[in-house]
Amino acid sequence: MSSFVMYGTLLNLFLLFIVLQFGSNNGSKTEQTLDLQNPNFFNPKLPPRTLSSNKKFEGSSDLVNLRYHMGPVLSSPINIYLIWYGKWAPSQQLLIKDFLLSVSTFNHRAAPSPSVAEWWSTVSLYTDQTGANISRSVLIAGEYSDRKYSQGTHLNRLSIQDVIAEAVKSKPFTVDHKKGIYLVLTSVDVTMQDFCRAVCGFHYFTFASKVGYTLPYAWVGNSGRQCPEVCAYPFAVPGYMGGSGAAALKSPNGDIGVDGMISVIGHELAELSSNPLVNAWYAGEDPVAPTEIGDLCEGLYGTGGGGGYMGQVMKDRDGRTYNLNGRRGRKFLVQWIWSPIIKACAGPNAMD
């Protein structure tokens, strides 16, 4: 490029800058022409987790050789049966249901990109031995509220199955052993075996001796009171940081406990769909301790993640952090999922 052309180009850019800053109407100063609806992009470096020796989710390991083990995936339209255990505010229930209903484009008008439905499209790439993909149709087929804490306020892995048994015995809660998955959500005052110490959520299937049927299920707890710095991370950071280092991020919906649950629910829902009976998609030789499609991308939310960075995410004009759009204008921060096509973590907010 000649020096004359370069000079002319720089001059034009300078004049454009002057117009944007001061306006061209009578020489009076105007506000900078920014669209405040557009988000800012950033890639924060975060402090180490409180329990750095533990993984947040069930069955994590260092193996990454993801393989198919010939078991079923959820290829039929997925019916979610919600079990609300304990005391839940209607606003909290609505937030979680908005996320679940955002997964399927069949449920509502498509949300703006990057959307929850686009995020689920990575999950739907997984197939069974017949070549059938995980379904993109996800519905909330039923709800049951266990407000009286039928199994007490301290649960373990077996008593969770008693919670499900109690729910399916009630009417009109359905036993759906063909298309159903059961999602047990415990309120902020309920403790769970290994909660906060080793897991924020897990999935498995019920025993016929407990429930009468083999039903895929997942549990996720509200950590807002017990350990938000672990299970609602990065919306809360360890107290020992004492204000040094990176600060907690502002949650997208103003409820740290439930906003933290959203990513865990997404993690478990993806793994439950791709490995419902623990004999389909996972890495490692032991199905009791598998690495699944969510485990491989734990802590990654956007391009440039890893090494202490969460990846390129968005911040709206109120400072709320998110990477996905959902129904009714909702915003969510949800971890990425391992793609079997590109063999890497993927999400619809990727910048490359």
TrEMBL record:
GO cellular component annotations of the record: apoplast
Sorted UniProt keywords: Apoplast, Secreted, Signal
A Pfam family: Phi_1
Subcellular location: Secreted, Extracellular space, Apoplast
Species the sequence originates in: Solanum commersonii
Cross-referenced InterPro entries: EXORDIUM-like
Full protein name: Protein EXORDIUM-like 5
Sequence similarity: Belongs to the EXORDIUM family.
Signal sequence range: 1-27
